[in-house]
Amino acid sequence: MTTDEEHIRPEGVDDLTVEALGSISEALEAIEIARGHLYALHRITGTADLTLGKGVQQLREAGHAELADRFERELVGRNVLYGRWTFQIVEEYDDGYYATFKRLEKEARDTLVEGKRHLYESEMKEDRRTRGRHGHERRPASGA
């Protein structure tokens, strides 16, 4: 059987280091989910603003110009946070917190375990799988 070298712990790396990198990786996964939710906020808020614009136009066409004007002045195109539309929030998050997290996580892996990813999970898989049983293979067959 060929080994999966990119998921084998480098010699001399202790358990606590692998656990620490596993925790950092788990935290990064949570940040990826948060980032996805932030992008969802961006998309949904943009859709809501466009739909609101349609509703405002319909109010105007139905003869409710004063109410339509109020919606248009106070809400259509409004910042969701002071000075920011959602695209600006996404960009600031991506360029600041997210980019820093990704950079430091990679730096830790590069420094401590030759850049290898998911060592903690790989070792957990080895521990939990039933060797020789279908559906419990170490890795996909060659070419799969």
UniProtKB/TrEMBL annotation:
It comes from Nocardioides albus. The lineage of its organism: Bacteria, Bacillati, Actinomycetota, Actinomycetes, Propionibacteriales. It comes from the Bacteria. This is Uncharacterized protein. Residues 117-144 are annotated as: Disordered. Residues 117-129 have a biased composition (Basic and acidic residues).
